[in-house]
Amino acid sequence: MPPVERADAARNRAKILEAAERLFATRDPSGVTMDDIAKAAGVGRGTLYRRYPDRASIARALLDAHEHRIQEQLLRGEGPLGPEPAATPTERLSAFYSAMVDLLERHSHLLLGAETGPARLATGAYGFWRAHVRMLAAAAQAPDPDVLADHLLAPLAPELYRRHRDQGVSPERIEATLHHIAHRMLGGTEKFG
Amino acid sequence: MPPVERADAARNRAKILEAAERLFATRDPSGVTMDDIAKAAGVGRGTLYRRYPDRASIARALLDAHEHRIQEQLLRGEGPLGPEPAATPTERLSAFYSAMVDLLERHSHLLLGAETGPARLATGAYGFWRAHVRMLAAAAQAPDPDVLADHLLAPLAPELYRRHRDQGVSPERIEATLHHIAHRMLGGTEKFG
DNA sequence: CCTCAAGTGGACACGGCGTCCACTTGATAG
DNA sequence: CTATCAAGTGGACGCCGTGTCCACTTGAGG
Questions:
Q1: pLDDT tens-digit profile, chain A (193 residues)
Q2: How far is the CA of B39 from the C1' of D29 (A)?
Q3: Residues B117, B126: contact at Cβ < 8 Å?
Q4: Inter-chain touch A157–B157, beta carbons under 8 Å
Q5: Residue A64 needs a FRET pair 20 to 30 A away by CA distance; which of A4, B90, B141, B176 works?
Q6: pTM to 2 decimals?
Q7: Is B180–A143 a contact, with Cβ atoms under 8 angstroms apart?
């Protein structure tokens, strides 16, 4: 007996998510209050809190679908993103960086609305990215993959991406720099001493 | 006519900084309120706000001395930290990373009390570090030093350092990984392409 | 000792958060 | 179609941190 969601509940959930998406895209995400969302959705505070304990959980709900798509591709997808045997760790890290730049470009407002600062590192999604990058680092025989993985993910911090973009840096430049990092950090091990 | 600070004002400023330092070190820095600091310093809210508009400015005041010391060394110091002609960009970046790990280890609570998230990137101190690293990247003929500088600084985010330390990662391991990054990213250009 | 600007501290209003509970709605059984 | 009642709703409420304001105190200079 899976407790089915009642019709009015489903309707309100949709209204909430739609309103939140709009607000996050419009104003500064960290300035959006729970009250704003409730008002914009035409719903009472109690209704809002029943499902989402805070702003971050709403943003996460909106992000989940997109992040899951990337995670699927990492596990099972074709091309260098997925576990294609022919692809080198360098190529796979580059592909991962590209996918993340795409995610940041499309949804940086949600990422900023979700978690900035320490909380982001505790996210399930972050754990997934770290596990993936750690695996690539280990495959490339890099030293201390556990620590290195976090350092390789650090340039993807949403606040840094947002700042770069606001200063007129193009996504392509950011992506190119990340590819450079991927090549330098995981590629050509044999050429060093 | 430099408006000299009155004796009671100076006394209170000292009490405030002392109390704040203690509170930041004890509890979670982001949980310390202005009221807590005022109470701990034995001072009214108005007195506190007269000098420091928010928690971050207090933490910055406490950090200033330490950051200035490093900045001095970068500009005029001896050894690979300073502008010694014989040192390569790789060596200088490694030395910089070491100095920052030392700063993080000693004062991560202040850094967390100061600015987490986007605000940190707008700090004067951050601008200084970026200018320095950008210069080293350019000297090493790395592509797009403007963007790369930020990416090379990203692993130094206080929240990441704190998390690593809390998970039992030693400062030495972090430092070693950063040195690895310095070598990979700025060293041995001629051995590629 | 007097003056007065600098400095002090606490009362206050504001706004966001999260909870609570009396009421409404819709799914199901008879 | 109606009755039942748990799930769902919404807004009022209390709490807490912020930042401001202003009547009072203090100390430096004359």
A1: 456 788 999 999 999 999 999 999 999 999 999 999 999 999 999 999 999 999 999 999 999 999 999 999 999 888 888 887 789 999 999 999 999 999 999 999 999 988 888 999 999 999 999 999 999 999 999 999 999 999 999 999 999 999 999 999 999 999 999 999 999 999 875 444 3
A2: 33
A3: no
A4: yes
A5: A4
A6: 0.93
A7: yes
